[in-house]
Give the backbone structure.
Amino acid sequence: MTKVGDGTCGGVGVATRVVPTRELGRWGEDVAVAHLERQGLVVLSRNWRCRHGELDVVAVDDDTLVVCEVKTRFGPSAEDPASAVTPAKLKRLRTLTAAWLSRYHVGWCAVRFDVVSVVLPTRGPATLRHFQGVS
């Protein structure tokens, strides 16, 4: 369980309460998707799963497929969640992306990997950072 403090980010507010970590992650994904859509991206899939794992968000930015990993953290000393996206995680994202492309019969296209980190401090508004083209 995670205690979530008051905060807003991208028009999504959270009241002070105790929520399961899974709900915190879902809230962070909602905030990230709202941000991506404000940036003009069109979301194609959320929480897409296969035997290799899960893609948080798959979207299109003009003619580029964007695979976005969303990381959410809570607390007074929360590190930047983007640091949790390691080279091993990026390798798995590439494998998952290949599976997504195959599943939806998408031929060759430009692919970009992004990370959106959402940090919700115990007090004050949440902060969002969008890292484009993480390799």
